[in-house]
Write a structure and sequence with these properties.
Helix content: 55-70%
Number of strands: 12
Shape: elongated
Largest sheet: 6 strands, mixed, barrel
Number of domains: 2
Strand content: 15-25%
Radius of gyration: 33 Å
Low-confidence stretches: none
Oligomer: single chain
Order of helices and strands: HHEHHEEHEHEHEEEEEHEHEHHHHH
Structural class: alpha+beta
Mean pLDDT: 81
Distance between the termini: 24 Å
Length: 406
């Protein structure tokens, strides 16, 4: 009996028991669909994170107070040694830098007439727009004069402006932040979310006003800041900027041991996020792959039952000349067909799930050809592996015993 004829017989046998064959494939279908969907969604999350970090601004470095270990601890443990004067020194003394913006931010209640919200109030400098690639939709942004005079002016994020003023012109209106009146001078262009947090639900005030009128000064070294954003001149100058900024701050802070600040590039932060999302994707894919193993065990179970049910058929075929190899191939083909068909159906379900996620969420989920090839290949291999035991059992049946027991 040739391979083609064995395949035809296997297909005929499986289609004769459609319900049982479908239920047998179910574990493989779920496993393949889960693996493909998880990998596709994980890669979509990595692409989304990459795009969002790029939206922070081109060639940007971030300086924050404390070390990575300190930031993982209680918030109050962070040192207050990073100050506005550090940002000014970086802008003046680091040749590989073209822009520096300091920020300090807090959550405060914001009120307009009978409307109120609790949004992030960002105290910053005029360079914020160019360094962080933000734009003004209406009006203007903070100026150096506003900084020097501690002017009570505010630029509203797009969401805050819509919430308070709708389609009305917000410029010149007055709002109250922590009970203090601020005049609206600008409305920001929509920026979108960053890692799940809306960047449009913030308002921007001069950093000096934020420190002197809202949150107060909390550092003995000057006007403390939460973060300093730095734009390098170009991508090639990022390593030089990182080195020069680190050395300058160590000199200014008179550091001889460990740094009391952290300098990170976009690539550094993106690598951390990529490692986390990649690890989660691998973990979830491994969990989903357990379904493939369960499906393989289901195939072996059903094939063993099939051997018992088809004892007479096996004995008759052996009696008329079928060899052990013919019987072995017959049952192996049936197992592989079940797993491969389940793999293909699971691939279709997985592609559908990824497409649905991409349509209803911001994730740019996409189907990975490698994931499809691996999932289908693994499912076929599982069928081959788990089909060996029942196939060998069928092949070893004695034809006389088989015919008697029928």
């Amino acid at each position: 009996m040739d391979f083609l004829e064995s395949t035809k017989m296997a297909v005929k046998t499986l289609t004769a028991n459609k319900l049982r064959s479908t239920l047998t494939m179910l574990g493989i279908i779920i496993g393949n669909a889960s693996v493909i969907a998880v990998i596709g969604i994980g890669q979509g999350a990595q692409r989304l994170a990459s795009e969002q970090f790029e939206s922070l601004g081109p060639n940007v470095l971030f300086v924050s107070p404390g070390t990575n270990q300190a930031r993982n601890g209680p918030r109050g443990d962070l040192p207050k040694t990073l100050v506005l004067e550090d940002a000014k020194a970086i802008a003046a003394q680091v040749p590989s830098v073209q822009g520096v913006a300091a920020q300090r931010q807090s959550q405060f209640p914001i009120v307009y007439r009978n409307l109120n919200t609790n949004s992030t109030v960002v105290g910053t400098t005029p360079e914020f727009l160019s360094v962080r690639s933000f734009d003004i939709a209406k009006g203007r942004f903070i100026t150096q004069q506003d900084m020097e005079r501690n002017t009570q002016v505010v630029a509203l994020g797009a969401d805050v402006a819509t919430r308070f003023f709708g389609n009305q012109d917000a410029i010149g209106q007055e709002i109250r932040i922590k009970g203090i009146t601020f005049r609206v001078i600008g409305v920001m262009q929509p920026k979108g979310a960053f890692l799940g947090t809306s960047q449009d639900d913030s308002v921007y005030v001069p950093i000096t006003t934020q420190a002197n009128r809202l949150s107060g000064r909390t550092s003995p070294y000057g006007l403390d800041v939460n973060i300093i954003s730095i734009a390098a001149k170009n991508e090639a100058s990022i390593p030089a900027a990182e080195f020069q900024v680190t050395n300058l701050l160590r000199l200014r802070h008179k550091i001889t041991g460990d740094d009391d600040f952290t300098v990170q590039t976009q690539k550094d932060v993106l690598a951390i996020v990529g490692t986390i999302t990649g690890g989660l994707t691998v973990m979830l894919a491994a969990i989903a792959a357990i379904s493939l193993v369960v499906g393989g065990i289901g195939i072996m179970n059903i094939m063993l039952v099939s051997v018992t049910e088809r004892t007479q058929e096996i004995g008759l075929r052996k009696a008329i000349g079928a060899s052990q190899q013919n019987i072995l191939i017959q049952f192996m083909i049936e197992a592989v067909i079940l797993s491969a068909a389940g793999g293909l159906l699971g691939t279709g379900v997985g592609i559908g799930a990824v497409t649905l996620v991409a349509a209803i969420s911001p994730l740019q989920a996409a189907v990975s050809p490698v994931a499809i090839a691996v999932a289908v290949g693994v499912s076929g291999g599982i069928g081959l592996f788990f089909g060996v035991v029942p196939a060998r059992q069928a092949a070893k049946l004695d034809p006389i015993v088989a015919l008697r027991s029928a």
